[in-house]
Input
Amino acid sequence: MKPSIQACFNKAATSYDANSDVQQSMGKKLISMLQTFITDDQSVIDLGCGTGMVTKNLFETVKFSRIVGIDLADELLKMAHKRLANPSIEFHQANFANLPLANESIDHVFSNMALHWSHDFNLTLQEIFRIQKQQGIFAMSLPLQGTLAELAQYGCRYNDFWSKGFVDHTLQKNGYEILHDEMLTCVVKYKNMLTALRLMKKTGTNFITRNTQQVVLSKSQLTAMRDDASLTYVIYLVIAKKTNEVIS
Output
């Protein structure tokens, strides 16, 4: 049986921070982008806050009156609670499509390298739209098609990553105007592919095969997994604004 996303992230709770350089780097970049579009003393929700490392950067960089951290993995949230004990910060275990917040109760939405785990991106955006105040800013980063493409030669994949066109269209049809976006490509080098896979599992990564049958690697593939390796991340960072216009 394939482990759940929650179980994979819970298992990686104590190893996540030390092996998430790409996620942390994108988080800092996204916070820098967000600062340009907001003012102090407003509220923000961090969707997919994990262990709270990037949430801590949010707290220290922008003067928010209220920060709400959301994650599905309870073990990650325990780490976040320990890292950020402050009366203006609260954490909740919840699914992205069922947030424990009232309608139009949050000014801004922040999500770093998390929403690609949504079971239904459209439903997730509808829920974000519901809880966010009018004219609020939505800052998001997520990997796109082309990410971890190197894994294909070994018969496995990390996730079904979306295209930029799909993300943009889904944002716009759910009432968001794109104000600014950037595409970044990061290449991370490893001693070999076996090391890369082990380190990625320490961040909660769940690998699945392209079909239901077990993948049998050839001798040449097994040998190649012991050679120098690299993995590519194609990251989309976007700043959008909630409007009244929902495109059907």
Notes: Residues 208-217 have pLDDT under 50 and may be disordered. The two ends are 38 Å apart (CA to CA). Residues 5-144+162-184+235-242 form a domain with the Rossmann fold fold (CATH 3.40.50.150). The first strand starts at residue 43 and ends at 47.
